[in-house]
Amino acid sequence: MKPVVPLLVAFTLLVAGQAVAQTQSAPSGTNATPAGPATAASSGPNGSTAFCLFALPAENGVQRWINLGIVQYVETRADSVQITFGGGNFGSGYDAKIPVKSPDEARAVLTRLRQTAEDCTRRAARPGNATKEEAR
Question: Quick check: 75 and 82 in contact, CB under 8 A?
């Protein structure tokens, strides 16, 4: 049986980790931001759990990112990590495969996915990141 990590489990882990993330925020009185992994595509203090980019390995000179906010599930295998996203029903949509050389490397990719999602959640939860509607 192939291991599948449902998105709900990943988000449950993120929600449980928010208290930890809040204690690791930047020191008060500075504009420093927590360092994110190289795979997180962010430029600035604003963040969103609905738009959270993760870089896929470049193919034929083309760099692609997927939005972690629309990921349905992730499968880890000994030779790849498959990310299914963007479909209306479970299993429909698109797949992105990240080739790996071992189960340990697959777990490392999954860890980077979780860390990127956590970083997006942390940026979105920062004070001052209210949307226009919330600011009214």
Answer: yes
Mean pLDDT along residues 6-21: 39
Compute the Cα dihedral for 24, 32, 128, 118 and give only its sign. negative
Token representation of residue 43: 């430029």
Half-sphere exposure of 105 (CA within 13 A, CB side): 9
Domain 4-21+48-124, CATH: 2.30.29
Is this prediction's pTM over 0.90? no
Of 27, 20, 4, the C-alpha closest to 118 is 20
Residue with tokens 């939005």, as numbered in its chain: 67
Cα–Cα distance for residue pair 110/85, rounded to 1 Å? 15
User: Tens digits of per-residue pLDDT, 79-111?
Assistant: 999 998 887 766 567 889 999 999 999 999 999
pLDDT attached to residue 13: 40
With beta carbons less than 8 A apart as the criterion, state whether 100 and 109 touch.
Answer: yes
Burial zone of 121 (CB within 10 Å; 0-12 exposed, 13-18 middle, 19+ buried): buried
Q: Which residues pair with 80 in a beta bridge?
A: 99
- Using an 8 Å Cβ cutoff, are 39 and 52 in contact? no
